[in-house]
Design a protein that fits this description.
binds magnesium ion, about 40% helix, binds adenosine-5'-diphosphate, alpha+beta
Amino acid sequence: SYRRGGYHAVKIGDQFAGGRYIAQKKLGWGQFSTVWLAYDTKDEKYVALKIQKSAAQFVQAALHEIDILSAIGDGSPSHTKFVAQLIDHFKHTGPNGNHLCMVLEFLGDSLLRLIKYTRYKGIPLKKVREICTCILIGLDYLHREHGIIHTDLKPENILLISPINPSRDPLSTGASPILERPEGSISPSPSHMEKRLKRRARRMSMSLSMGRGDSIDEYPKRNIEEIDVRCKIVDFGNACWADNQFTDLVQTRQYRAPEVILQAGYSYSIDMWSFACIAFELATGDMLFNPRAGQGFSEDEDHLALMMELLGKFPKKMATSGAKCKDFFDRFGDLKRIRRLKMCPLKKLLVERYKFSEKDANEFSEFLLPLLDLSPEKRPSAQQCLQHPWIKDIDYAPFDIINNGNSLENLNVGMRNLQIAVGK
Ligand code: ADP
Ligand code: MG
């Protein structure tokens, strides 16, 4: 991918935007971009530098993402705290072409890393409620103030405000930023470097990358209770205005709403579906739906079957109205190619498989089930969810901010303050 039209190869110490930003280390990558920790010499702070691939379609996508990010950066300040902030953007010309670059506030690990940190056992419900609150405030802001649907909510796209491991945080380690290329050392190209790291990782029987196979061994044993779990929504590369959608096939498979699979049209409520999938995954460590194609049925059909096993039959309107309905359902609303379903309601699943107490299972499923309504128009909005007792009855700072704009400053914890708050 490091070829014409593809990623821009970055070396530590490389300068961007006429020397304002200096690359420090790679933070992650996605389909369209690599993301680097960079030092902003003008404002003297760390930032995340997202460098897009250079082919025309990626430039187009970046321009769109910049549009969305610029729009959402411009809103009531208390709410913008729950979505990633765009600081700057510019064009960078390299051997592979012209790359649009976005400068974003530097954030911590993703929720996926947090889930891995628990060795896929799930995090305490109190923390799940706190994280859910942040996501809901962010979603309510996107949906109601901007008319934007994220369309790709998943644990990878929600980042904690600071890293789980404080030693990964350039602010808490106090190390001074790299201001020029390390002398005498010509860094190998990232692809070469990645190959080497991959080999090493395999040897140590762990795998590299920010992806699902990421190692958890590198994390110190730190009580999950100590981690301040405030988080923000990132990655607006696929976001759209509700009244200007450009594609039918949205969302990452496991977090995809039924109306998207059935091609029955979609709106804000697809984000609410993904949100419920994320909440379940945080609490249990397992994906709510992880469909596979099998003999005689497709991944889509398995996905619909998993939904029906958990939530019951599709309402007639849903089973007949989408462009794909005839492919999947017979005239009785049963799946054509998967005949026997093993029904397992959510509450039972939580108690039997995940050993939730009756009380926890009751409360959690009461919160989740309305969000997992197979009829999109029946799902509660983010605003309504914020009023649900499971969320509302917790003693949690972001609420003060939302309910009382005056205490905005309380939330204005930069990463430095946060480290202090966590006692590091
Ligand atoms: P893509 O659109 O290519 O998927 P993302 O915006 O999701 O790109 O970024 C890819 C990865 O880079 C993320 O999963 C995350 O690990 C890291 N990342 C993105 N933005 C930030 C940020 N603001 N601070 C820290 N890391 C980030
Ligand atoms: Mg992403």
